[in-house]
Structures are given as structure tokens and as C-alpha cells.
Amino acid sequence: MVPLGSLEQHGPHLPLDTDTRIAAAVAARACAGRAGVGLAPPVPFGASGEHADFPGTLSVGTAALTTFLVELGRHASLHWPAMLLVNGHGGNAAAIAGALRQLRAEGRECHVWHAGLPGSDAHAGRMETSVMLALAPGDVLTAAAAAGDTRPLAEIMPELRARGVRAVSPNGVLGDPSGASAEEGETLLGLLADGLTAALDTLLAAFSLATAGCRARWGNRRARASRRGCPGRGTGARRDLRRTRAARSS
Ligand SMILES: [Zn+2]
């Protein structure tokens, strides 16, 4: 599991790495106590070109992020049966889609889960402010919190894409942080973790089915091989192990 974030302005009141912290926190909750699931450190930079007008934003852009994710997925597939990206920033979606297309065309297992809740505001509004109040209240400048553009994201998206966030919201907020609370943030974190856990359950169930299928197929192949008097798979590994033991004892 690899959390993906961004480093971009989150209005005057939230930290630049809000998306990264949320993705990492949700991933940590979903991974806790799960055997066979490894949690990678979060990727701190994303594609945040739409926030470029605001100081503090650092973006690597869609092309670089796509290449990064493809290379990460190729390497992950050497040691893990699948990579699950936990995305905390909407602007990363195009890079993720491109990387997944490439990795799947190469026969590698790569999946994504986007950290979002239906009906919540888009950026530095009530949802993200509540979650950050739950995660790190000392890092939220509550007195500086102010509403930005509260229109639905779909409505402002064309202008946002063409001219950036500053053009639609001078303070960088898309939504309204009013009413945000740590208690609400804890509830939202629980809902997000439940969503990711469900996605993880589905993925693990698919893999245990696939592994069972491999075992069944392999069992048949091994039976046929032994009937033919051929060594089965694993013989080489056992031979190597014996050689290693002999080398150690010599
Ligand atoms: Zn955010």
C-alpha cells in the first residue's frame, strides 16, 4: 500500500501537506493488524499545477508523477503480488490512471483507492479541516480559516483547469471550513478507513482465490510431473538450500 499526497496550498489555515497526511493516516488505519500488507512511506509530491500561483506549492506535474508510479509499480511487482495506491489528492488522478494503464498492460497488479467522501467539499473546506483537527489540531490555524468558492467542483472545474485555483478562489479554499471539528474529523477518518478496508478486503479476497487457483493448477502439474518421473518445481530451490547449508558448514 502506497499513500500518495501533494504539497500544495490549503488555504490560509491548513498545512501544505494536508493531502499527504490524510492519505497516510487512512492507509495506516486500514493496514493496522493486517497480515501480508506492507505500508510504504507516503509520496509527498504530486501533480498540483492548478495551485502553482500560491507560494509553498511544490508540484512535479502529471508526466513526472506517471513515470514515477510506473517505475514504482515495476519494482513493487518484483516482491509483492500487488500495489494499492491510496490517493489523497484529486489532481493526481490523471497520472494514476496513466500509470495503471501502463502497469496493467505489462501484466502487473496495480490498483487505486481515492480518499474522498460523497458530498464533501473539494479543498481545504469543512472535510479536510475537520480531519486535520482530528489528526494534528496544533497545525490548524483556526482563526485564519475562511470560506472560499463554495460552488460544486463540477461547476468551477472548466475555469479552474484553464486559469488555476487563484482565479476562482483568491484564498485558495474550495468549500467552507465553518463548523469543522475534531469530532467530525474522527468520524470522517473512520468512514475513509472503512472504505479503504473494504477495498483492501476485496483485493485480498481476489488474491486468495487466485492463489488457491494457482495451488490447484500447480498440484495437477506436479502430479503429472511425478507420474512422468520428472522433478517438480521447488526441487531446484531445495537443492540451492542444501548447497547454501553445505557452504555455511564448510
Ligand atoms: Zn487537500
Fold and architecture overview:
The structure is a single chain. This protein has about 250 residues and is mainly alpha-helical. It has helices at about 20-30, 60-80, 95-105, 125-135, 155-165, 165-170, 180-225, 235-250; strands at about 1-5, 85, 110-115. The chain has a three-stranded parallel β-sheet, sandwiched between helices. The longest helix has about 45 residues, at about 180-225. Zinc ion binds near residues 19, 123 and 128.
Blueprint (SSEs and pairs):
Layout: E1 2-4, H1 18-31, H2 61-79, E2 83-87, H3 93-105, E3 110-114, H4 126-135, H5 153-163, H6 165-168, H7 182-227, H8 235-249
Parallel strand pairs: 1-2, 2-3
The structure holds zinc ion.
Zinc ion is lined by residues 10, 18-19, 89, 123, 128.
CATH class of the largest domain: Alpha Beta
Proportion of beta-strand residues: 5-15%
Report the C-alpha radius of gyration, rounded: 23 Å
How many strands appear in the DSSP assignment?
3
Overall domain count: 2
Query: Under the CATH scheme, which architecture of the largest domain would be assigned?
Result: 3-Layer(aba) Sandwich
What gross morphology would you assign?
Answer: globular
Distance between the termini: 42 Å
- Would you tell me the overall average pLDDT? 86
> What small molecules are bound in this structure?
zinc ion
> What characterizes the major β-sheet?
3 strands, parallel
How would you write the strand order of the largest sheet?
1-2-3
Question: What's the helix count?
Answer: 8
CATH third-level topology of the largest domain: Rossmann fold
Structural class: mainly alpha
**Helix content, binned percent:** 40-55%
